Amino acid sequence: MEAKTSRAWLLDFGNGLQAAVGNHEMWQVILTPTLFDVPVAPTYCDHVLVFQGHVLPVVNIPNLLGYELTPTVDKSVVGIAVFQDNPANPIHYGCLLLANMPQNIYVSDDSACELPIDKIYWEPLAISSFSHNDETIPIINLATLFSEKIVHIARSN
Fold first, then answer.
1. Domain segments of the chain: what residues?
2. Are 38 and 157 within 8 A, CB to CB?
């Protein structure tokens, strides 16, 4: 039996951090977006993007995972993600601050693997992970990332 292959988006967050989302979960990519500061917000979500009349949170993954002291990306690429926290609920939107344009890749079930110890910080956000070009890439659970659980994830990193 042949292994199932699916398309995904490989996301580069800078600071050596990469993850993936399903092909259908990356709705749009905006280059040089206009972001608005949110005063007194945590550094991992201190900007919003106004898009088609909606105010969308912009998550900075390196800051969320505890890389606040390293240089952040230049805020010139934002991916708008779509997700549902439950199939019976409406679609939600959220933004991810990216270092580069996402890459469309193919992922085979044969490439599934466990997160290594040196990437265990992804565990609260990862649905699963796979091997790509000799790197373990977590698959982000967007419903978790854009939920109230994000506060607990940020505090633990």
1. 5-156
2. no
| Cα–Cα nearest to 98, from 69, 124, 122, 75 | 75
Beta bridge partners of 103: 10
3-class secondary structure for 65-114? CCCCCCCCCCCCEEEEEEECCCCCCCCEEEEEEECCCCEEEEEEHHHECC
Tokens of 47: 């900007």
Edge-to-edge strands, sheet with 103-108: 103-108, 5-14, 17-22, 135-140, 126-132
The three-point CA angle 145-28-19 to 5° equals: 45
Q: Which amino acid is at 73?
A: V
* CA pair distance 152, 120, nearest whole angstrom: 15
pLDDT in tens, 58-81: 999 999 988 765 455 577 899 999
> pTM of the full predicted structure?
0.91
CATH code of 5-156, in short, is 2.40.50.180
Reported confidence tier of residue 122, pLDDT bands at 50, 70, 90: very high
d(CA 67, CA 138): 17
